[in-house]
Design goal:
Largest sheet: 6 strands, mixed
Number of strands: 11
Strand order of the largest sheet: 3-7-8-6-5-4
Number of helices: 3
Helix content: under 10%
Structural class: mainly beta
Distance between the termini: 80 Å
Strand content: 35-45%
Length: 162
Amino acid sequence: MSAVQEDVLFQREDDILPRPEEPVIESRNYLIFVIGDLKLGVDADYVVEILNNHTVTYLPMMPDYILGIYNMRGQIIPILDIRLRLGKPSKEGDSLLIVLNYNNMQLGILVDSVELMIDIPNAEIMPIPARNAQKLVSGMCTLPDGAGTMMVLDCEQLMPHE
């Protein structure tokens, strides 16, 4: 008997039959940041940069939650106080600036702190309760290791479409 015939003759059934593929778990990376007592997450694909040293140039006649603009290497970026946009009081003092790029529009949001980047399976993102619908939040999930609950920031709703 040739070596090839022996290999075929003595193969295990597991080697011959196609193996079922493991299910692919679709997930996304989220940057988790804090505003007061809220943990919010934004799809990491939208994050351009996180800055801790920034100067905002005030713009008159803008909604109160638009603090002004920031010049990032020659590009003018509107800066949004996410606290005011969420109906919370503004915070004086240090804050981080997260620059987002959503639909080819860059926008900066001020946050208290950045916690971590985490991969969350899409199936774990639950819709928010209808009666508590917050127009800036598109979903929520429980973070692993008892780290609390994260609300998914809906970038499309950050700037009004008026």
